[in-house]
Design brief:
The protein has 177 residues and is mostly helical. The chain contains six helices and no strands. Helix content is 71%, strand content 0%.
Length: 177
């Protein structure tokens, strides 16, 4: 059986840096969520906040594993790209299935879905033609898109766009009392 190595030396540095960046950003996402645990992932957190945090995590995990596998000698990047795309797509759709897609949320979801569908198609093509360096280049650019999905979602969490406000304390002059 011939070598399955699909990543040449030209891409090893990129994928190593991408894996490092994804791992670091996953850690920072955990820190950001831990600063507002009840309002992002708690039982009273809005579903949008959970979906945004989960979607950012999924995009980073996708980037991490695809990049990490890419630097393993004799590993087929096509298979892992296709598998991670399917998993990422399934988990992302599962997170968003009950949300009302209004405003920027549906655009973010559409961008994530397009990225994962593209990654799946390129992954399958790369599994068929593992020596095609043009396809490796496309995977590299799709990882940039996956990072963009994650960073956009994380940025919206930082801004508190989907974070529930604490309910106001009732005042003594409130007629309902």
């Amino acid at each position: 059986m011939g070598r399955l190595l699909v990543v040449t030396g030209d891409f090893i540095g990129y994928f190593a840096a991408a894996a490092t960046a994804a791992g670091t950003l996953i850690g920072l996402l955990f820190v950001a969520v831990s600063l507002r645990p009840g309002s992002v992932l708690g039982a009273t957190a809005p579903p949008e906040a959970r979906a945004v945090a989960g979607s950012a995590f999924i995009a980073l995990v996708n980037s991490f594993f695809v990049s990490l596998i890419a630097v393993i000698p004799d590993a087929s990047l096509g298979y892992v790209a296709a598998i991670m795309a399917v998993l990422s797509l399934w988990y992302t759709m599962n997170l968003h299935r009950s949300l009302v897609h209004a405003g920027p949320t549906w655009r973010e979801l559409a961008f994530a879905v397009a990225t994962y569908c593209g990654q799946f198609g390129v992954g399958v093509a790369l599994a068929i033609r593992p020596q095609n360096q043009n396809l490796v280049s496309v995977v590299a650019y799709l990882l940039v898109a996956s990072f963009a999905v994650a960073l956009q979602r994380a940025w919206s969490l930082i801004h508190g766009r989907y974070i529930a406000e604490k309910p106001a304390e009732p005042s003594a002059s409130d007629p309902a009392l």
